[in-house]
Request: fold
Amino acid sequence: MTIPRPLILLVLGPLCFAAGCAQPIRTDRTFRRGVEALAAGSPKAAIPFLTEAVASSPDDAEAHAMLAVAYALALEPDLAIQMVKRVHPDPGTIETPGWEHVALGIAAVVQHRPEDAAEQLRKVADTASSPADAKQAASQWLTLTLLLKGEWSGALDSLTLWPPADDTNGARTTALLWAVLVHAHQGDAQSARRCLVKAAGDVSGPRGLKALPLAEITRADNQGLCAAGVAAIRQDKLAEAEKLFTALHARQPNAYDAQVWLALVAAAEGKWAETVSRLKNACLEGPPRSRGLANQLFSVVCALQNRPHSMIHHMLIGQRLRERDRVSGHMPTP
Reply:
C-alpha cells in the first residue's frame, strides 16, 4: 500500500522563511539564528539575536526588517513600526517591497487595522520583484487579513494565487485546507467538500491509495487506517472516511492527524460547530506535529471569528510544535 504523505508536512504556516530572507543567503550566524527562531514560531527568542545583528550593522535594512517582524509577532506593533522607520524614515525610499511591509502589515493586524494591513501586504504580494519568500508570507497574511475583515470572497480568491509555478512545499494543499474552513464557515458545504477531496488527492500522491474494506478495520494498523481514510476522502466517501478516522482516533488520540481529518470531514458535511470543537481538541491532544497542524488550522478559525491576537497565538504554537527542535543553543548576551 502506498503510504500517504503526512498532512502536517504539506501544510505551511504564514512564517515560511526558515531558510533566510533575501538572496543571496546571508552567512551572518547571529542574524540567521534569529530568522530560524522566527520560523520556529518563537519571535521573543528571535528578538535578542536580531537586536544583536542590528547593533553590529546599524545600516542593515534586512536585519531591521526581520527584527520588525519579530516585534510584530510578539504583539509589540509600535516597536515594529519604529524599527522600520529607523532604516526607512521616508516610506517612499523602499523601492522593492519586502519584509518591511510584511512587518508593517502584521503590526496593523495586531492593532486591529485590517484595512492598513491589507494595503501593506498587497504591496509585497502584488510586486513581481519582491523576494519570493516575502511574497509567499505576504500572500498568506493577506488571506488572513481579508478573513479578519469579513471579505470571504476576496480571501477565497487570494487562496488561488498562493501556489508558485513549482509548488514543492505544499502551498496548494494549504490553500485547499484553508478553503475548506472558509467555505464551511460560510455554510457552503458543497464547495468545502470539493476542496477536501482535492486536498486528499494531494496527500495521497500521484499513485493514490487503496481503500480498506470496513470489515478489515480491526486488523489494519494505524498507518493502514490513515491511508484508507485518505483514500475514502479522495473517492468522496466521507461517511466511510469518518468511520476509519474515528476508529484510528479511538486507538490513539489524533494519531496520524485523525482528529484533524475528522474536523475537516465535519466541515465538508456542513457541521461547523463540530469542526471547531474537533480542531480545538486536536490542538491539545496527540503527537506534537499533529497538534501543530491543528493549531495552525485553528488560527484560520480565529481569523474567521475576527480574533487577530488568538489567530497569531495559535499560529505561533503551531510553528513551535512543528519546529521546536530547530533552534538550539544559548541566547546572545545583551
Observations:
- Residues 302 and 310 are 6 Å apart (CA to CA).
- The chain has a mean pLDDT of 85.
- The chain has two domains: 17-164, 189-323.
- The radius of gyration is 20 Å.
